[in-house]
Every structure is written in C-alpha cells, then in structure tokens.
Amino acid sequence: MSFVTTLGRLLRTTAVKLTLVYVAVFTALLVGLIVYIFTMTDDLLDRQLRETIDAEIRGLSDQYRVRGLTGLVNSVERRSVAPGASLYLITDFAGNRIAGNIDSLTQSLIANPDGEARPVYYVRLGPSGEEEARPRPALVRVFVLPGGFRLLVGRDLEERTEFRAIIAQAAQWSLLVAIVFGLLSFLVVSSRVLRRIDAIAATGSKIVDGDFTRRLPITGTGDEFDRLSDSLNTMLDRITELHAGLRRVSDNIAHDLKTPLTRLRMQAEAALRQATSEEALRDALQATIEESEALIRTFDALLMIARSEAGSATVALAPVDIAQIARDVAEMYEPVAEEAEVTLSVEVPDTVMVEANRELVGQALANLIDNAIKHGARDAEEGPKVSVILTDSQVAAELSVADNGPGIAPADRSRVTDRFVRLEASRSTPGSGLGLSLVEAIANVHRGRFELGDAEPGLKATLVFPHDPKHLAQDRS
Amino acid sequence: MRILLIEDDSDAAGFLSRGLREAGHVVDLAQDGAQGAEFAHANDYDVLLIDRMLPLRDGLSIVEERREAGDTTPILILSALGQVDDRVKGLRAGGDDYLAKPYAFSELLARVEALGRRQKPIQAETAYTVGDLELDRLSHSVSRAGQPIPLQPREFRLLEYLMQHAGQVVTRTMLLENVWDYHFDPQTNVIDVHVSRLRSKIDKDFDRPLLHTVRGAGYVIRDDAR
C-alpha cells in the first residue's frame, strides 16, 4: 500500500513528468538513428549483391562467347561447388536444366528474362545433386545467351536476413536498456529531489504549526534547493522579526495605555466620591479630558511607531526643503527656549532638498528640540544651549539637535532607543514619553537613520536623510 | 449658521448636533452617505460636516460630488484616519479642513465657525480693528490707542489671524496650522508661549485686555466693552 502511494506520488511529481518526456524524446531519437543505419546498410548490401551478380554474368557470358556452351557449363559446375558459392543455373530455351546448383526455377522467371535481379525462393542442390528440404530466399538474375540458352546467376539472401535480424535484435536491446536506464536514473534523481522538497515541506508545516525557530535545511552544495531554502529562510527571519515587533508593540500598547487609563478611571472615581462642589467636579472633569488627550497622543505616537516598525507606514514623500523646516521649528520653539533660559541657535544652510514628509520631519525636529530643552540643556553646567545644525553632502543630509548637558553615556545610548526604558524614565516628566522613539520611527519611514552621539559635552541627536541616487537621477532628467 | 452633519455613529451625532445647537446653529443630521448626499444637494448650508467612513456611501465621494457640482460650501471632514496622508487625501478631495477623531468639541466648534465665516464674501480688508487695537496689513504695522507696537513677523501673523477671526474662538491647532502651516503635535505649549508673548506686547500696558484665553479651547480676541 505504502509502495503504491509512494509510486503514485512519484508519478505526480514534476520530476517524473519531465523524465517521461525526456525518455520519450531520447527513445524517438534512438529509433530514428537505428532505422537510418539499418536502411543505409541494407541498401549497401543490396547494391553489392547486384554488382556481384552482374559481374558473374558478364564473366560467364564471356566464357560462353569464347568457349561455347561446354566451357560455360564447365565453369558453372566448377564454381557451383565452391563453398559459399553463388547460385547458378543454365537451361535451354524451354527452361530445362542443363547445369548448375539449383534445382529449378519458376517458369515465369525463365520465360521473362528482363535483365533485372529479383528476389525469389529456390531449392538448392547439394554437391551430389540432393535437394535441400527448405526453399531459401535469393536474389537472382536471368540472362539470355545467344542461342536461346538461359543463364541464371544469383546470391543467397539468408545472410542478409540474418544480418537484419541481428540488427533488429540489437536495436531492441539497446532501446530497452536506454529506456530502463533513463527511467531509473531519472527516478533516482527525482526521488532525491522529492526528498529535499519533502524536507522543506515538513519544516514548513512545523513552522505553520507555530514553531518559528525552525529553518529550512541547507546542504551546503549551493544548488537550487539551497538557494530556495536560503531565500525562504531570509523571508522567515523577516516574518519572525515583524512578528516579534508586533508582539512588542502590542505589549507596549497594553503597558503604555493601561497605566494612564487606570489613572483616568481613578480620577473619575475620586471625583465622584469626594467632589463636594460643582467647581471641584468641573476641575476633575477638566483633568479627565486632559488625561484623555495625553492618552490619545500616546496612542497616535504608538500607532505611528508600530506602523513604521512593521514597515507598513505609507507616507507620501516629496522633495521638501528641510532647511526651511529647521528654521520654522526652531523659530516655533524659540520662546519656549527663552522661557527655560536656554539659548537656541540655528546653523542651517539656505536650502537642503530631501525626499521627505514635511509634517513628519517637523514633528521629529520638534520632539528633538523639546527633548533637548527639557532634559538635556536643563542640566548644563554653564549657560544651557541647544543648537539645530543642518549639514548636507552628496551622500546624505544630516539634521542634528545638540545640547550642552550631561549627555548620555555611549553604553546607554542604544538602551535609550528602546521604548520601554525611555518610557519608564520619562514618566516623571510631562509629554507622551514616546518622543525619541517617534523620531526613530520617522527616520525609518524616510529610509534614514536616527543616531545619538556626543556633542562634547552634551547629547547630539541626528536624523540622517540619505540622498537616494534614484531620485537624484529623476530630478536631473 | 445652517449646518449639515453627516455622521453614522448616533451617539457622536447626537452629541455634536446638541453642542452645535447650543452654540446657536441650525443642524440637519444625515445618518448615512446616501441621505447625506441628498440633503447636501437639496438644501443650502453654510458648512458641511462629513464623516469619512459612512454606510452606503463613502464620505470623500460626497465631498468630490459637491465640488464637481460647483458647490463651494465649506466642508469639514471628520475621520478616524489620522495619518498624515489621510489628511492630504481629504483636503485634495475638496475638503476645506480635516479633523481626526477623537477631537475636542471645542476644536470642532471653533473650526466650524471659522469655516462658516470664510463662506462670506472676503472683502479685501487691508486693516483690522478690535477696540483700540489696529493692524494694517499693507504697512505691516500694529498700534494700540495710537501707540505703535513693534512685532516680530511671526507675532504679526499670529495677531493677524486672531484679528481676522475676532470674536471667534481660535484653537491652538488652528493657530499651528494657519500661522505656522504645520499639522504636527508640538508636544509642549509652544503656541501658548507665543500667544503670551504677543499678549505682553499688546495688552500688558493697557488696562483693558483684548486677547483672552478660553479655557479648554483656545484663544479669542475681542473687545469686551462693546
């Protein structure tokens, strides 16, 4: 049963279908070749036979002309007994045998000598005149001698028939062997292929069952299957990454939203329980609205971050002047900086065009400046300063916000880009607490980078917008 | 003002129409896209409030239809889709303003009133006056009680926008969008700081303040004496 199912499955595979096609084509070619060789050889043999017959007739008729009937009969009798001899027969005009090594011929043949060799069946006479039991095939030619005598010369065709049989047999065997070996080798190959595919399918179904750590086997030969497995594995890695990202995002959303939601609820409950005046209720409601606004803000930021991390953020990018954005946002924050006694400086070229979304870049820069004023420059040892610096090169435009505060130790920088850490840290200060991760998300949406470096002293946060060579080419055209 | 509200969520629709009526407006309510399009076609409104996702008909298609029919009634699109591109799509379809859910009612009311005023023929006003505060758009000068007040360019534009909407509540987001032309969330009270700077220049040395803060909503410039 299992053999049958295996066979059935084998027969349905592409490898077997291909095998059958190849074997059929191969066999057809082989048959064609054999037929060609056979016909050519047969023709050659036939021609040789006829030439031999013609030559003998010429020789014997010369004998007759020179030495008369007696000489001819002598020659024929002599030649007749030689081993492997041709067939000879001399008759008178009525077909009566005079000499030769065959018994008789059909009257029609004797009566209609046409000079052409033709195949006939004959009975051979042994050296002592006895007849053989079986008629044999032969190619004969009848020639009319002057004086009405008929001379017949022929060659036995038994050999040629045997030769044909041998060729036919050889052809059959070689065809059989070719087909069998063809099928076998292709079956071996296809069963190997099938095993590889089975391995891939088995791993695939385990992954579907939820074991995302599995990867497809790679044999290391670098063949098509290895390449296929490799690209599938890369895809699986990406899926796992996205999956993990999604899980992280949902964990974070739960974490980040539950806390303020709880706070909101507690505020409302407290107001219900304790508020004695309408004024107090009004205040509590106002606080509730503000809390819910903060919640919405957090939610929006989380959504944006999640979308950019999942790679599904669809934002139209167009050429924009980020120098103008830098000046606008810096100007927007200028009074805030002044109020916080922070010197806000702007070092920006006239124009720097990048493929970007104006709102998102503005948002990112606003977050960075806000962050620098609130957290960085505040702790500066002398004259808190925040600088917005924009530089441009062939490769990328870099938009930085630097402060002269204590900065972040290099070891902690990567930790800062992790959402949880920063969230914990920023709970004590107002704001959505997702400022920097939102900036990173925005950098990702722009296929750029977000880097934290040392401003010596202080923190330098940089948004890198790579110039896409493709877009540059489009602009020039 | 006569307002058409096309909103399928009956709670939100009830809340909105009650609020708008309390503010003195006449509200027609359509609960689905097809009915909304019919109302918009049949009647004359000052402002259309259209939810983007509606049963029977997509909100944006109504906006496009109105514009194709040559109707210039101001349209405010309400949507749960708050991504940057959604806003752009809404405005491109012919909407005059776009408000992402969830929004504060005060924000909505302020925007509806600003839109309703836009409908009135815009005179080429070269100067605005509120009380004894005067703003000359041509000479870019501001004076109060005849006393010139020097303003930074941004402060001038801020005041210009407030005076253009004198007597109307203007929210922080409206200021950010119209004075700075940005739509992002500025995290901190940047707008408040700008406004308080402006206030210190135009109100500080005078006994009657003109620039008022409306709690939980925004700002309004008006002369209370009148």
Structure overview:
The complex is a heterodimer of chains A (477) and B (226). Chain A is of the alpha+beta class and 477 residues long. Chain A is built from twelve helices and twelve strands. Chain A has three domains: 14-162, Beta-Lactamase; 224-309; 315-476, 2-Layer Sandwich (Heat Shock Protein 90), CATH 3.30.565.10. Helices cover 61% and strands 15% of the residues of chain A. The radius of gyration of chain A is 52 Å and the shape is rod-shaped. The two termini of chain A are 68 Å apart. Helices cover 40% and strands 22% of the residues of chain B. Chain B folds into two domains: 2-119, Rossmann fold (3-Layer(aba) Sandwich), CATH 3.40.50.2300; 127-221, Arc Repressor Mutant, subunit A (Orthogonal Bundle). A five-stranded parallel β-sheet of chain B has the order 2-1-3-4-5, with helices on both faces. Chain B has a four-stranded antiparallel β-sheet with strand order 6-7-8-9, covered by helices on one side. Chain B contains eight helices and twelve strands. With 226 residues, chain B is α/β, with parallel strands linked by helices. In chain B, a hairpin with a 2-residue loop joins strand 6 and strand 7 (133-136). The mean pLDDT of chain B is 85. Chain B has helices at residues 10-22, 33-42, 59-68, 84-92, 105-119, 153-164, 172-180, 190-202, and strands at 2-6, 26-30, 47-51, 75-79, 97-100, 127-130, 133-136, 141-144, 147-149, 170-171, 211-214, 218-221. At the A-B interface, helix 6, helix 7 and helix 8 of A face helix 4 and helix 8 of B.
